[in-house]
Design a protein that fits this description.
The protein is mostly helical. Helix content is 62%, strand content 2%. Helix 4 runs parallel beside helix 6, helix 6 runs antiparallel to helix 10 and helix 6 runs parallel beside helix 11.
Length: 266
C-alpha cells in the first residue's frame, strides 16, 4: 500500500463526528462516542458502548472511562478535540499495577489542574494553593474533604443571602470535590471534576484533554502512537479540521442580540 493509499484509508475517520451517548453502527460521517470511533479506527468489530466495560479488552479501562466521561460531558464545541485520541485507545491496556497508577494519575492531576481555578472563583484561594501543590493521593484527598465541607458551608450561607451566583460556585466546589474523592477509585469521576468546574473556569476542557494526553507520566507504556508518514499527515489534518469545527460550533452557540436590543442601541 502506498502512502497515499494509507492516508486515504483514514479519510472516514478524518470526517468523523463525535456525539454524546452510545450509538448504533455509524453512518459515513460518524455519529459515535470517542470509544466507538476508536474501535472503528482500529478495525475492531463494532459495538455500542454504554459503559467502560463494553470496550474491547485492549483498551485501557481508566483511559477509556475518562475519555467516555469527557465525551458525554463536553459541549459540542469542545468534544471534537477528543478525536486526537482516536488512534491511541486500542492497544493501551496494561498490567493491573499500571492501570491503577493511571487511575491515580487522572485523579491527582484533576485536583492539581482542574480544581484550583474553580476554588479561586469561589473565594477559596488557600484551598486552591493546596490543590496545586498536592503531591500524593492522601494529601489531595484531605484537601478535597476540606473543599467539600467549605463549599457546602459557603453554599448554605449564600442561599440565606439570596446570593445565587456565589451559591452556585460554592455548590459546584462541594460537588466537584466529592467527584474528586471518588475519582481515586473510579476514573470516570475524574471527568466529573472537569464537568463541575467548566461552567465557572475558562479553559477547563482544554486542561482535561491535556491530562488525558499526559497520562503516560503515571507509569507503564503509552498507548501506541502511529508514526508512519500517512498517519502523521492524518493527525495534522484531523487537528486542523477539529479546530475549524470547534470554531464553527462556538460561533453557532454564541448568543445573538435580539432585534429589539439592536434597535434600542443598548
Amino acid at each position: 500500500m502506498t502512502g497515499r493509499d494509507a492516508l486515504g484509508a483514514f479519510e472516514p475517520i478524518l470526517n468523523w463526528r463525535l456525539l454524546k451517548g452510545s450509538h448504533a453502527f455509524p453512518g459515513p460521517d460518524g455519529g459515535t462516542c470517542i470509544n466507538e470511533a476508536a474501535m472503528v479506527a482500529a478495525g475492531l468489530p463494532y459495538r455500542a458502548i454504554t459503559a467502560t466495560e463494553d470496550c474491547p479488552p485492549c483498551f485501557s479501562r481508566p483511559l477509556a472511562a475518562y475519555a467516555l466521561g469527557l465525551n458525554d460531558a463536553m459541549p459540542e464545541s469542545e468534544r471534537q478535540g477528543l478525536m486526537a485520541f482516536v488512534l491511541r485507545l486500542s492497544g493501551s491496556a496494561d498490567r493491573p499495577a499500571v492501570e491503577a497508577a493511571r487511575t491515580a494519575f487522572l485523579a491527582l492531576e484533576s485536583v492539581r489542574r482542574i480544581l484550583p481555578p474553580l476554588l479561586d472563583a469561589a473565594g477559596l484561594p488557600a484551598l486552591a494553593a493546596r490543590c496545586e501543590t498536592a503531591s500524593d493521593p492522601a494529601g489531595a484527598q484531605d484537601t478535597l474533604r476540606a473543599a467539600e465541607r467549605q463549599g457546602g458551608t459557603l453554599s448554605h450561607a449564600a442561599a440565606g443571602r439570596h446570593a445565587w451566583i456565589a451559591g452556585a460556585r460554592a455548590s459546584a466546589v462541594a460537588r466537584t470535590a466529592t467527584a474528586g474523592l471518588r475519582a481515586f477509585s473510579d476514573p470516570r469521576c475524574a471527568a466529573e471534576v472537569a464537568e463541575g468546574a467548566a461552567p465557572f473556569a475558562e479553559g477547563t476542557w482544554r486542561e482535561a484533554l491535556a491530562i488525558l494526553d499526559g497520562h503516560s507520566g503515571s507509569a507503564g507504556r503509552r498507548p501506541p502512537s502511529i508514526c508512519s508518514a500517512p498517519a502523521i499527515a492524518w493527525r495534522r489534518r484531523a487537528a486542523s479540521l477539529s479546530r475549524r469545527r470547534a470554531d464553527a460550533a462556538r460561533r453557532r452557540d454564541r448568543p445573538r442580540p435580539s432585534r429589539n436590543w439592536r434597535a434600542s442601541g443598548r
